[in-house]
Amino acid sequence: MGWFPTFELPGRLLWLLVIPLLVTLYIIAMRRRGRRGMRFTNTSMLAAVMRPQKQWRRHLAVALSMLSLAALTIAFAKPSAEARVPVERATVVVVIDTSQSMGATDVEPNRLDAAKTAATDFVESMPPNMNVAVVEMAGNSGIRFSADTDRAAATRVIDALKLKDGTAVGEAIALGLDALRRVPGGDGEQSEDIAPGAIVLLSDGESNSGRPALQGADLAKEAGVPVHTIAYGTQTGFVDLDGERHQVAVNKEELEQVAQTTEGKSYEAADAKQLDAVFDEIGSEVGHRTEEVEVTAQYVGWGFGFAVLAALAAISLAVRWP
């Protein structure tokens, strides 16, 4: 929430000018009280009759009263502030690369298993009302879990993913958009409009089948859906296929282009810890939007709290403390 609110009725803030006036009157009253006290020449008799009070308690009571008045005056002006609010029908499509290169063991136990663990934690940490869909990216890509709030079902699908041949980034993005189109509307009915959300695409290599990656990125750009890409793995990874060793260094350039085209963000993760951090950052951004919301109740609450403290401070003035 923003620190500096805007006001629907800013003219009412003129009542704040009453506060310095009251403080001035309080200071004048305290000085006059001090001068009256000087009329008593026998201060020892005065001390015996009246128990001295600590000035800080009186000052505290007045200060808390002024804070309460300030908070309630701000509430009276109907303040609004920027806040992050959940988006209705918000959906995150998690695209996981299951190509053979994801079997590289440069990330323990291997790229795919580490990715599945991180993706599972990401899905489980999402707000309960946010939908999640799962797309498998390989030569034969597909929507493995349609958008839903059932976290247990989604994680079971992620856990069941296996290595396959081929990498089709463009096709996976197109499938992610299809998953967003299948999200029911706010009334539970099927909607023709694409649901608000984002695609999170985790891969270690470039496309070698299906439509080109940038073609899929153009589709996402046209639909207004950002694609956040995660280039996962190291430059020293390798896999053994059919008795031959193949280097499978991460190709991050293509993924960066996809993210830039769709106004998403591109990330790199060389190990499981970095991948967890990336998913945490993405999770804090998707599914919410920033908008102006009225915060009158918040300032009323502060005003009430200060008023209660002021009352307690005033009561303490009448109590004989040991």
Automatic annotation (TrEMBL):
- Gene3D superfamilies linked to this entry: von Willebrand factor, type A domain
Specify one Pfam family. Answer: BatA
Extract the SMART domains matched here. VWA
For whether the record's keyword set contains Cytoplasm, the answer is no
Which part of the chain is the VWFA domain?
91-282
Question: What start-end ranges are recorded for coiled-coil regions in this protein?
Answer: none
For this UniProt entry, which segments traverse the membrane?
12-29, 60-77, 299-319
Q: Which UniProt keywords apply?
A: Cell membrane, Membrane, Transmembrane, Transmembrane helix
Q: What PANTHER family does the record tag this protein with?
A: LEUCINE ZIPPER PROTEIN 4 (PTHR22550:SF5), SPORE GERMINATION PROTEIN (PTHR22550)
The name of this protein is Ca-activated chloride channel family protein
Q: Please give the organism.
A: Propioniferax innocua
Q: What is the lineage of its organism?
A: Bacteria, Bacillati, Actinomycetota, Actinomycetes, Propionibacteriales
